[in-house]
Amino acid sequence: MEKKRAQWSSKLGFILAAAGSAVGLGNIWKFPGRAYEGGGGSFLLIYLFIVVLLGIPLMLTELALGRASQTNIVNTFKKLGYKQHSWVGWIGVIGAFIITCYYSHVGGWVLRYVFSYAFEAPAIYRDSLGYFYNMLGLHADGTTSIPWTALFFAALFMLLNAVVIIRGVEGGIEKFNKFGMPALFLLLIILLIRSVTLPGAEAGVKYMLSLDLGKVTVNTFFSALGQAFYSLSIGMAILVTYGSYLSKSEDMIKNTAVVCGMDTLVAVLAGFIIVPAVFATLGSGEVGKGGGFAFVSLAGVFAEMPGGRIFGVLFYLLLLFAALTSSISLIESIVAFLTEEFGWTRKRTTIILCLILFLIGCLYTCSQAAIPLKGIWYDGVNGITHPALCDFMEYLTDRIMIPLCALGCCIFVGWVWKPESIIAEVEQSGFRFRLAKAYTVLIRFVAPAAILAILILSIFSGVTLS
Ligand code: PFF
């Protein structure tokens, strides 16, 4: 007898879990830096346009694929009668595996920083770059050591993931998100109030609202497109898996719009927290992006602001919740695949998988410390360059696998399984799909063309997609 498939226990449970997957490190530390680079308000406008035009239809497509097939992403295509398209699912699962290796270690560093701000804030303020590298095993005198602290916290972060995932879809993931997502919103609001009321913050707020078209280039569009995919967790199998736990009676369009809206709201709020705070404390021109920014530049912000230490702890707690709910979704999609395909138990699969992910991730953390790569770390400008392994993992997933998996889904739905099947799946719940015609054009022509453009550009030029 087939076991009954897990399901979200409520609409809110699903929305918070899907939003939890979408809202992650991408929103809080990647988005503000990108928005700044893209000219503030003009980037925001382009980003919103892309979320509405491509993000919502693509998220809907992945969720509906999962709900129609009621299975993991690799098996989805077989179950729908198109086994030859399973490669799309394989890209998703393998991509999720690679992302989790590094994402969970960065999550560990974030966890470390919660404690760092609570107990060692003065040391961070004294030399934020040195503190960061020291955590990663690269010391001021140029010597390197195994970064035990970073590895320990990455292990702890992974343990937190495992505990939630072992408890299952409803009892673990849904429950955690029901607590984690409201906590995240509360922290966002507190930090937003703190940031925009700092003396000198108005310049940053103005910048984020300004339409400086002179700063918009073709790259701005591609940067916004890549950011939107990463931020909404599109192209990584996760949404297919989460859609497969969704009840047949749910209004998928409304749910998708709410999840996309929440993700975008968090990104925009993060932009309005970070950019004004940096303008107020460090001055414009200091807004950076990526790991160095979240761990190094922000120290200057907290050092300058009254109550900075408490807000530092709150900020890293915010990042921690965001990272946890996203990494849980990444790991769950691999666990769903392994348990369903090989009949393994959830508990054993989760423990073994988390252990493997953690061990591979150790190479990522260790390569940051430049143990084998000493000497190529400081670039003299931001003080940061990425060693080869990190670059490779991020390049492969963000620039190749995510777009390829998303493109595969569009082509499959647009031309093989046909948009009518998605429309029928959406309407099964008794809701009319009013924009069905527009959806068909988007999924058959517009989305594949846009994704193909990012793929080609990212392979043949230096455009960075995340
Ligand atoms: N959307 C998450 C973020 O913005 O950080 C990251 C992510 C999660 C990317 C899940 C891809 C994914 F499949």
Q: What do you see in this structure?
A:
This protein starts with 10 loop residues before the first helix and ends in a 6-residue tail after the last helix. The protein has a single domain (11-461), classed as Amino acid/polyamine transporter I, CATH 1.20.1740. Mean pLDDT is 86; it is low at 371-386. It is built from 19 helices and no strands. It has 466 residues and is mainly α. The longest helix is centred in the C-terminal third of the chain and has 35 residues, at 308-342. Bound molecules: 4-fluoro-L-phenylalanine.
Compact overview of the structure:
By secondary structure, the chain is mainly alpha-helical. It contains 19 helices and no strands.
Tell me the number of structural domains: 1
Quaternary structure of the protein: single chain
Question: CATH topology, what is it called?
Answer: Amino acid/polyamine transporter I
Number of helices: 19
> Which runs of at least 5 residues are low in confidence (pLDDT < 50)?
371-386
Q: What is the radius of gyration computed over CA atoms, rounded to a whole number of angstroms?
A: 21 Å
Could you say which small molecules are bound to this protein? 4-fluoro-L-phenylalanine
Percentage of residues assigned to helices: over 70%
The major pleated sheet works out as: none
Number of strand segments: 0
CATH architecture: Up-down Bundle
* Ends apart, CA distance between termini: 44 Å
Pattern of helices and strands:
HHHHHHHHHHHHHHHHHHH
Which class best fits the helix and strand makeup?
A: mainly alpha
